[in-house]
Amino acid sequence: MSASTLPQGQQLAVRWYPPAYDIRVEHVAIPKIEHPDDVIVKIKLAGLCGSDLHVYRGHEDVDEPLICGHEFVGEVIELGESFHPGATDRPSLYSTLKIGDKVVAPFTISCGECHFCRIGFTCRCIHSLLFGIPILPGGQAQYVRVPKAGGTLFPIQGPMTQISDTSLILLGDILPTGIFAALQALQHPKLQPTATSVSYPFSGWTPIASPVTTSLQPQDREITLAVVGLGPVGICATVSLLDMLSRAAYSFKVVAIDPNESRRSKMQAVYSAIDEKDRGNGTFAVASIEESKKLVADWTEGIGCNAVLEIVGNNSALTLAYDLVRPFGLISSVGVHQAPPLPFTGRDCYNKNVSFDFGRCPVRALFPIALDLLFRRQDVFGGVGEEKSLVDRIVGFDKAKEMYEVFDKGGCGKVLFDPWM
Ligand SMILES: [Zn+2]
Ligand SMILES: [Zn+2]
């Protein structure tokens, strides 16, 4: 059924049915404002994400049908009553957002007003809800209702409107999540001696009166990092990591690792697309698991990586991360881990003084950084369907069922749905 033949008040949406592997494109009611803080967004593009596969495969605890998807870019078509020029005591969008504005949203709602939102840990907002669950229909539809929209939405304005929708959709999840993995590593206190050339404990921000006495050797000032997992988020993490290292003028070595040959080729093509002058003062390699262990040992005289970015979310990736990280190193994990216990013991952690940072990306807080990177790195993020592109193809909802099947089997890269195609 095409959009033009739908009954009044109805829209097309991609729905998942329990228990698993059942995707149907159906007509359902166009969402309405339910709360004064709501906004209705007309979807221009919706993403199919690796996280959608958790629901698709029946791995989440859901037993009723839902509208899928948590990545979208669209246009505001209706504002709740909280949106008016006088709402200046709330997040600024309540007084500035207009019908017709182009917007993106994080994959979870964030109010912008609670403790976690105020300090920037927006993914743990006390009102947090993931798009694409039974009580919050997702973005693989023609319209979506956005709760707490003055805190959740991010407007695309000024020069940023030049960025294509196929790029902007990366802001909803994968680009900020990649940036988060890199930021957690580079901002970690344990990396500061290497980053600042000042030995611990004087490298930290805490004012300590004692003079610095040790002098670091050149090899102590070189940062060695690994990225485990080169799906779309892993590629975003690698690109943002290289960008941060280059802009900070750090001396570095980075290895990007995946067992899958086609993912490694994609990573190499993306790296080749980065302008040479922006590649920074370092060495970059793409490697298989076995190659990476040898490479890191050679690079670091056997001591390992300062930090490992783990982007997969399973125990073999965590085991590799633990093997690659050096004593006093950090594992920055943004993979969505499921039920099994972690593959190391308290003793393993003690024996390496290893630090772990786990968890969901505070996407809303990272939007300004992600948008800036997206704008500057259109050489990487700009295209569709090219060898270096993160977005593989754009299809209509008529292909939704097939695309879930193909994507589930690893037969394609990132797919976007155009709900009006
Ligand atoms: Zn996603
Ligand atoms: Zn909040």
UniProtKB/TrEMBL annotation:
<dbReference type="InterPro" id="IPR013149">
    <property type="entry name" value="ADH-like_C"/>
</dbReference>
<dbReference type="InterPro" id="IPR013154">
    <property type="entry name" value="ADH-like_N"/>
</dbReference>
<keyword id="KW-0862">Zinc</keyword>
<dbReference type="Pfam" id="PF08240">
    <property type="entry name" value="ADH_N"/>
</dbReference>
<dbReference type="GO" id="GO:0046872">
    <property type="term" value="F:metal ion binding"/>
</dbReference>
<keyword id="KW-0479">Metal-binding</keyword>
<dbReference type="Pfam" id="PF00107">
    <property type="entry name" value="ADH_zinc_N"/>
</dbReference>
<dbReference type="InterPro" id="IPR036291">
    <property type="entry name" value="NAD(P)-bd_dom_sf"/>
</dbReference>
<feature type="domain" description="Alcohol dehydrogenase-like C-terminal">
    <location>
        <begin position="249"/>
        <end position="356"/>
    </location>
</feature>
<feature type="domain" description="Alcohol dehydrogenase-like N-terminal">
    <location>
        <begin position="36"/>
        <end position="150"/>
    </location>
</feature>
<dbReference type="InterPro" id="IPR011032">
    <property type="entry name" value="GroES-like_sf"/>
</dbReference>
<protein>
    <submittedName>
        <fullName>Uncharacterized protein</fullName>
    </submittedName>
</protein>
